[in-house]
Amino acid sequence: MKSRLFILTLLLMIISYKAQVIGMLEQFEECASRPNHDEGCPDLENITYAKDTNNRLDQFVGTWKGTFGGKQYEIKLEKKLQVGNGTVKWDRIIGRMLIKDSLGNIIYNSMNKPDNNTYFLGYNFQHRSYVMNFVGNYDCLESGDVFIETKISNLNEMTLFYSQDKDGLLNPAKCPNFSTFVSLLPTQKMTLIKQ
């Protein structure tokens, strides 16, 4: 009886191991830079887990602070494993932010939000930069990609650049101050220091 149980357990472990096909984040990064990336990447079709095998995400983990345009930024980045509800799970960075104006008033705070509600989620690398998606005040079309990159000469310094989406449906009733609206994140490179 014990030998049957052992064989059954071993068989189930082999089946579950074969069910997960692991790929590297670098493979998906390379796929995105191909000219035909819109048609898919046949060599990655069976992958069920995009793993940070080389621990490239670790350089971003921690609390980062900086100032830009009169605002004070505190950004906390955490590495999460096997994130996602789709067929492919990803190792990703999840971010939280605290932004204050020049007087110290809080204008944005996602520090205490659960992982699935921070609206600041990493996607993948683009050369040395890691690309994250951010949604702030969506009614004012504040969403886009955030590019973060640690400096080669000093891993405790990181640059951040926000590329705001240009497409979307604006509802003036929900964003009456759209003509004077200033995005939370800078659309020019800013430097953050690891704490």
SSE string, helix = H, strand = E? Answer: HEHEEEEEEEEEE
CATH topology call of the domain at 59-194: Lipocalin
Amount of helix? 10-25%
Mean pLDDT: 85
InterPro entries: DUF6705
Domain DUF6705: 1-140
Protein name: DUF6705 domain-containing protein
Describe the protein:
- It is a single chain.
- With 195 residues, the protein is mainly beta.
- The chain has a domain at 59-194: Lipocalin (Beta Barrel).
- The protein is built from two helices and eleven strands; from the N terminus they run αβαββββββββββ.
- The chain has helices at residues 2-19, 25-32, and strands at residues 22-24, 49-51, 62-68, 71-83, 89-100, 106-109, 120-126, 129-135, 143-150, 157-164, 190-194.
- Strands 1, 2, 3, 4, 5, 6, 7, 8, 9, 10 and 11 form an eleven-stranded mixed β-sheet that branches.
- β4 and β5 (89-100) form a beta hairpin.
- The chain is globular and about 50 Å long.
- 16% of the residues are buried.
- Residues 14-18 have low confidence and may be disordered.
- It holds the Pfam family DUF6705.
- It comes from Chryseobacterium tagetis.
- Residues 1-140 form the DUF6705 domain.
- This is DUF6705 domain-containing protein.
- InterPro entries: DUF6705.
What distinguishing features does this structure have?
39% strand; 11-stranded mixed sheet; Lipocalin; 195 residues; 2 helices; mainly beta
